[in-house]
Amino acid sequence: MSKLSPFGLMGLVIVRDLTLAMRRRADVMTILIFFVMVSSLFPLAVGTEADLLRKMAPGVVWVAALLASMLSLSRMFSSDYLDGTLEQMIIVPHSLSMLVLSKIIAHWMLSGLPLVLIAPVLGLQFDMSGQALMILVVTLLLGTPVLSIIGAIGAALTLGLRGGGVLISLLVLPLCIPVLIFGTGAVAQVLDGVSAAANLSLLGALLLMSLLFAPWVTAQALRISLE
Amino acid sequence: MTINWFKYSAPSSFYGLAGKLIPWFAWPAGVLFCVGLYIGFFVAPTDAVQSEAYRIIFIHVPASILSMIIYIVMAGYAALGLIFNTRLSSMMATALAPTGALLAFVSLWTGALWGKPTWGAWWVWDARLTSELILLFLYLGFISLQASIDDPRRADRAGALLAIVGSVNVPIIYFSVQWWNTLHQGSTIKLSGTSMHIAMQQAMFAMFMALWLYVIAVVLMRVRSIILERERNTQWVTELKEYQQ
Amino acid sequence: MRSTIQPGILPVCAIKILPLAIGCLHRILRKFIRQSYIIFSYLQRIIMSSLVKNDRMLKVTNLACARGEQELFANVCFELHAGEMLQVLGENGSGKTTLLRTLCGFSQPLAGEIFWQGKVIRDASEEYHADIIYLGHLNAIKDELSALENLRISCTLADCEISDSDALEALRNMGLRGRETFPVKLLSQGQRRRVALARLLLSKAPLWILDEPLAALDVEAAVLIQDLIARHLKDRGMVIYTTHQTLEVSGTEIRRLSLS
After folding, report:
1. What is the side-by-side strand order in the sheet with C70-81?
2. Which of B47, C41, C215, C229 has the fewest CB atoms below 10 angstroms from its CB?
């Protein structure tokens, strides 16, 4: 009986979640399609004036990314909860926080990373400059993991409840507002010609802090939901 | 004589204590309300810059300060209930939430009412008002989470976790909103003058104390009804006078 | 003529004999010490093994559990030793599943303590969880993965390394020959239950906590499970279970705990 190392454990859970998602590809695609649709709604709503669109672009893309992340959160633990695998994970002789972190990483790879990869296309839709686009992608790269990590707390608290994705959004959106502010602030600063270092470093700080604390909080929330 | 510090930590004994305490908070609150409103609306002088409309701050400022205090107290009670498994602490947290949400809402409304005559707009994205809005969302999230969980024990503990996470986040949110606001706008709503007239200070203090006592009275009333609802199957509830009538 | 035995001969003899005597004594003593050491360590081993047999014990004192605000049962006490099986009886809603789940460590009881090997499970949870396997109402298998993949993942997570051939053999022993690599969603309810129960074949955990293990199983599979439990008990394992069907294990007396 060999003891599974923490990295072995994380690798096992991530590969498992990715395998499961690959066999159910539709779920991943719907989030991407939603993201693209929502950001295309804004020009339809406010008109096609180029200046206005360019100023709106970082905000619109970020809000769409936020909403798409919120929608995908309900799936993080619910399928494991419904077939009983989640409760087996709790009584496993390993750290639940590590298991949760692996699930969060797998979830981000399936819902956050595609958003980051598609964002440049959307930015072009809004006629953003190259430099602004790059900063937008960097902020999304730093910010979408934070959304997944903080969202995991909401997903764990609302396991099995009727509210679904809307309840998670209600709980998690206020907590994600700093990410939104720093993310769009970075792009706005670049558009103004100032360096975006301050906002980016604050985003990085948020990422580090949430990586440290949120998996443990999520593990406690899972224990509460599975009592 | 040894003091039993935990005598009132059981819902059954706290129910009686709360009932006796309510008038001691409610009447002074009412009196202080009248005093504060009188001083605020009639005695305090007209502000040099903002004329009569500024008087709304006598409701706005105590409401916003108290809504923040209540959130911290609520998170504290919820944490006690989570760590020590005491049901009464969780009941107090559940009782505090609606009052806190109401005060946050009142603060937002009075802020809007203040903004219209002063700045010409019903809503200005002032940093403090925006933080107040996010605080209202946090309260509403707490209330809806507890409302959607049927099992009271799970509801207590899940709500406690959410309240603690929220209270840790409140400084971060406040700071980021400040940052955002100073970048995008620059001017914020300020009280005129560096020192307040003595009557304004008196009115502010009176209204603050009045609101605080009111909050305590209302929360005690609410926690009594929560106790009754949660303990309805126990013997001491069925023996209560109110129950048998 | 005077005798040649001189008075000084005694000391000379003594001097000559003494070392020999000491040497003999030394050898006898050494042999004696070695023998007694062997006997002592043998005794020690017997005592320790009997102590260890007593240590493999689940002890529950004054347990009380609630669901929601309603107390289900109180003052439940029992001890379970190696080789014993305990059936939890009670009406629907009397708290059988809650008791089993509390024993797994999912929720804290209202009152009372649970001891495993003398330690409270709350303080030693990782060690305790390494020693139990829980099978509840849900099968804990993923529909999109095959039976083989499911088994490999659950065994690896439970710190029980198995090879593919072990897993395949376990699945075949559970009557799933030819279906090991199908996605589980193509299997029937009974077959899924068999996949879930295949974990028992590969697990090295001494304590089995089974909530209605025979549900959805046909007669053949039920016999299989009963044999499995019998073998586990003979290996000094322990089983706590609830069931609505009859579970008979030859050669073992079933202890019963009633919650109503």
Report:
1. C70-81, C57-67, C111-116, C119-120
2. C41
